[in-house]
Amino acid sequence: MAKKSENKTVYDASSIQVLKGLEAVRRRPGMYVGGTDTKALHHLVYEIVDNSIDEALAGRCERIEVTIHPDNSVSVHDDGVGIPVAKHPTEKVSALELVHTTLHAGGKFDDAAYKVSGGLHGVGAAAVNALSEWMEVTVMRDKGVHFQRYERGIPQAPVKKLRPMKRGEKTGTTTRFRFDETIFKEEVDFRFETLVNRFREMAFVTSGVYLSVRDERPSPAREMNFYFEGGVKSFVRYLNRNRKALHPPVYVRKETDNMEVEVALQYTEGIAVSEFAFANTIHTPDGGTHLTGVRTAVTRVINSFARKNNFLKEKDNNFSSDDTREGLTVVVSVKHPDPQFESQTKVKLMNAEVSGIVSSVTAEALSAHLDESPRDAKRIIDRCLTSSRARAAAKKARELVMRKSALESLTLPGKLADCSERDPAKCEVYIVEGDSAGGTAKQGRDRHFQAILPLRGKILNTERARLDKILTNNEVKAMISALGTGIGESFDLENLRYGRVIIMTDADVDGSHIRTLLLTFFFRYMPQLIEDGHLYIAQPPLYAIKQGKDLHYTYTEAQNTALLKQLEGKKIGLQRYKGLGEMNAQQLWETTMDPAVRTLLQVTIEDAVTADRTFDMLMGSEVPPRRRFITTHASEVRNLDV
Fold first, then answer.
1. Is the distance from CB of 148 to CB of 85 less than 8 angstroms?
2. Considering 136, 435, 508, 606, which one is annotated as catalytic?
3. Which one is catalytic: 23, 62, 151, 510?
4. Distance between CA atoms of residues 150 and 153, nearest Å
5. Region 502-509: what's the mean pLDDT?
C-alpha cells in the first residue's frame, strides 16, 4: 500500500474558520464594494451618501455635503434626524456602534423607519468602516452632539456625548473616513469629477435636495452644488443639451401599487442610445426590470401607433426594439419599498413585478403624447422607419464582412501581421497609424505574441454615421475582421483574438484625431472591449535626449523639462518625435512595445453619462457645443509643439 504524502493538505474540523465581526469584509472586499480598485474606492463614498439620500426620501433631510479633505479623507454631512445613539434594547450597545460594526444591522429593515430606501442589507456603513484606516462619526440628536471613532472597523471607545446642542443647531450626521491603504494597495485616489458626475445624477433623481461636492486638495478648492426640481425630465434635457431634439421630453410621474415611477424620454437626431435607470435613487448601470419595462412600452406603443395611422403597411414588419431605441434618451427612476438587487453593489434591479408596472405607466404617457402631438409623432415614426431601413442594410453589410476571413477583408496596403501565439489571453494587437509606422512596428515587435494592424489615415467618424455606412469603410472592416468579435447584434467577446487591443498613433494633432476616432468607434460599437478591460493606448516618447553615449527618453513635457534641467551645462542632443516613423524598430520596441518597460494607458468608462455626452459633443454634428468646449479649455493647453 502506498504511503500518504507527508505534505498532503489536511482538511478536518480545524480547517473551518469563523470570521468574526467585520473581518469577512476585510478579507473579501469584492463581495461588498466590488473590489479594491478606483471604482470600489468611490463606492465607499456612495454607500455613505446613499444613507443620507434615504433620509431625504423619508422627508427628513434637505441638504447633503460631501468633502474630500487634504489628507484624502472624505466626510459626508446631512441634516437628517441623525443615527440613533441610545443603547439597542437587545444588543446592549449604542445603535450608532451597532450599525457601524455589525453586518446586516440597520434601520432599513423596519418599514416604519424608512418607507423607501437604497440601503437594504444593513451592510454599507459597516463595510465602509471595515475598509477604512479610521472613521469618525458625529451625530447631532437627542439634544446632544455624540461622537465615536473606529480604526479598521474597531471602536476605540464607547459613544460619548461631546456637548449639548446649541440653540438653532440642526440634527444630522457627519461621517468622515480615510480608506485603508493596506487594502486598496493599487495607486487609487478619489476623483472629484467622478463624484461630481455621480452626485449630479443623484440630485436629478432626488428633486428638491441640495447636494454639494467639495474638493479641498487643490488650491483653490473646487466645489460643485446641485439642486433640481424638475426630476428626471431635467436630467433628459441635460443629457441632450448638445443634441438636436425632435420633440419636448415625454414625462410621467405616477404612484401605483405602492411604488413611485418616474420616466422621461426624448428622441434626438443622433444615432446613439442613452438609457439611465435608477432604483431608490441608486444608479443601476446594468439596467433591470424597470428599464425592460420602458423598452417594452416604447416598442409596443410606436408599433401600434404606426399601424393604426398607416405608417406601417400590412406587408411591413413591425419595428424592432433597436429600431425604436435609436436616437432615444430615456431616464427611468423607480422608488420601491422592497427592491431586489443583483448584488450588494446594486448594479441591476431584479423585481419581476416592476417591469409590468413601468411598462403600463410609460405606455400611457407615450400614447397620449403621440395622439396629442401629431407633428412629434410623425418625426418619431419617420425616424424609426429610417432606422429600420438602415438596420436592414447594415445586417447585409455585416453578414458580408463576417463571411470573409480576417486576411481576405484587409485590402489596405499594409496588411495584418499576425502573431504565432494562439492563446488570445497572451496575444495583443497594435492598431497603428499609417504604413510607415506600421512597417517599423512590424520590424520591432515580438512576433510570438504581438500583431500589427496598420490603418491608412483617418477612419470614418462613427458618431455621425449609421452602421451600414460604417461597414463599407475599409479600415473599420479591417479592425472587425482582425479582432474577430463581429459587431452590433453579432458581437461576441468570446471570439476576441487578442487579449489587449492597443491604439498606437503619432504624438501630433493628426495622431490625436485618429485616436479619438478609434475611441469613438470602440465606445459606440464595441463597448464591451472597454468594459472588460481589453482596450489600451500606447505611450510613445515625446523626446529623445542624447548625452554622450547615453540616450534618454521622456514621455511628457514635465519629464522633459526636469531632465533638461538636470543635464543643464552638458552637451546634449534633443529630438522631438512627431511621428512613430521617426523612430527605428529598435527604438520603438525599447520605448513603446517592450512589456518590461513600456507604459500602457487602459481605457475605462468610469462614468457613462459623461463619456456619452463628451463623445456626442466632440464628434457629433452640433458645432456650437464643440466650439464652447474648445474655447473654454484652450487655456489649459501648455507647451503644445506641433
1. no
2. 508
3. 510
4. 6
5. 84
* pLDDT tens sequence across 441-463: 999 999 999 999 998 877 787 77
- Joined together, the cell numbers standing for residue 245 give 431634439
Contact at 8 Å (CB) between 526 and 487?
yes
- What are residue 535's DSSP bridge partners? 501
Amino acid identity for residue 530 in this structure: I
Please name the residue ranges forming H helices in 19-88. 23-27, 30-33, 38-57
- Annotated active-site residue 510? The verdict is yes
Identity (one letter) of the amino acid at 550?
D
**Amino acid in the structure at residue 118:** G
DSSP state of 635: G
Task: Render pLDDT for 5-21 as a digit per residue (tens, 0 to 9).
Answer: 455 566 555 554 445 55
Angle at 36 between CA 608 and CA 429, to 5 degrees: 60
Label residue 504 exposed, middle or buried (CB < 10 Å: 0-12, 13-18, 19+). buried
3-state secondary structure of 175: strand
Distances (CA, A) of 397 to 260, 292, 415, 437: 44, 29, 21, 30
Active site residue 12: no
Return the pLDDT at 2: 46
What sections of 309-351 are H helices per DSSP? 321-325
pLDDT of residue 616: 59
Domains and CATH numbers, the chain: 23-226 (3.30.565.10), 232-392 (3.30.230.10), 406-539 (3.40.50.670), 543-600 (3.30.1490.440)
As a whole number of Å, the end-to-end CA separation of the chain is: 78
Per-residue confidence (pLDDT) for residue 551, from 0 to 100: 87
Opening angle at CA 321, ends 351 and 605, nearest 5: 70
Q: 500 has which bridge partners?
A: 428
Catalytic, 78? Answer: no
Residue 433 appears among annotated catalytic residues = yes
- Identified catalytic residue from 79, 506, 612, 616: 506
pLDDT of 549 reads: 84
Residue 535 neighbours by CB distance under 10 Å: 25
User: What are the angstrom distances between the C-alpha of 410 and each of 189, 255, 482, 636?
Assistant: 42, 56, 8, 40
Question: Residue 32's pLDDT band (boundaries 50, 70, 90)?
Answer: confident
* Helix ranges restricted to H, 86-171: 95-101, 124-130
pTM: 0.68
Q: 584-619 burial, b if ≥16 CB within 10 A, otherwise e?
A: eeebbbbbbbeeeeeebeebeeebbbebbbebbbeb
Contact present, 250 and 266 (Cβ < 8 Å): yes
The whole-angstrom separation of Cα 606 and Cα 95 is 35
Q: Which residue has the cell 494607458?
A: 601
Q: What is the pLDDT of residues 110-142, one digit of tens each?
A: 444 445 555 433 467 888 999 999 999 999 999
**76/45 Cα distance (integer angstroms):** 8
Q: Alpha helices, DSSP H only, in 154-288? A: 192-205, 232-239
List the one residue out of 60, 54, 143 whose CA is nearest residue 99: 54
- How sure is the predictor about 536, in pLDDT bands with cuts at 50, 70 and 90? very high
Q: Residue holding cell 479582432? A: 483
Output the pLDDT for position 433: 84
308-345 confidence digits (pLDDT tens): 999 998 888 999 999 999 999 999 999 988 888 887 66
Q: Which listed residue (55, 97, 326, 433) is catalytic?
A: 433
CA 527 from centroid of its chain's CA atoms: 11
